[in-house]
Design a protein that fits this description.
single chain, alpha/beta, Nucleotidyltransferase, domain 5, five-stranded mixed β-sheet, four-stranded mixed β-sheet, 8 helices, globular
Amino acid sequence: MSKILCIDASTEAFSVALLNGHEVTEEYQLAPRQHAQLILPTVQKLLQQSDILLNQVDAIACHVGPGAFTGIRIAVSVAQGLAYGANKPTIALSSLANLANQAFREQSKDYCLCAIDARMNEVYFAAFQRGKNDLGQVLAPESVIPPEAVDFAGYQESIAANNLAMTGSGWEAYNDQFNWSSELQNQIVQNDLILKEQFPRASASLKQADLMYIQGNLLSPEALQPSYLRNNVAKKKSIKK
C-alpha cells in the first residue's frame, strides 16, 4: 500500500493522518483557531513516529472544503508547501465525503446525508450512497444552502427503514430550521439517525486517498485549490467598503 499524509482543518476540528503501508497513525482534536500552530508540528510528529521522511511519502492529501475559509486556506497552503518541498503530488479531498466515509465505516447503512454548519444560516450539504470499498458516491452535489432548502423527499423510505445516517455539525446547529415534518423528525429521533461524530477527520479519507493515488487522480501542488462553495460571497466581502 501507499504512503500518504492527509491534512484536515476544514472545521473546528483538526487532524493529520499518515498511511504507511498497512499502518495508520493520526492526531485529532477539537482546536478552534489553532490550526496554523498545530499542523506542521503534528506532521513532523507523525513522520517521526512512523520513522519515515517526508520525501518518502508518495502524496500529500488535503481536505479542500467545504468548510471554514481560514482553516481550509491554512491546510491547503501547508499541503502545497510540503508537496513543493518534497517534490510530491497532492490529492484533493472533500470534507463532506469524509463525513460520509466515516458514517459508512461505522454504520451498516446505504445512504448518508451530510450537513456542515456554514454559518450565515446556511449549511454545506451533500447526499451520498455507499459505494465500492464502503466509500461514499455522490447523490446530491455539494452545495451551500439554507437549512430549509434541504429536500428530504427522496430519502423518506430510507429514513423509515433505518437505512440512512445523518452526520455533520449542521444538523444540531439548525435543528429548528430544517423542513421536516413531525413524523419524519420522530423517525429520525427514534432510529437515532444523527451520528455523534460531527467533524471530518483525516484518517477517514486515507482509503479514498490511497485509491486515488493508485488510479493516478493526482494534482501538482499549485493545482490544489480550496473548494469554498461560497466564492462569490468571499469576493463581495473583499470589495465591500
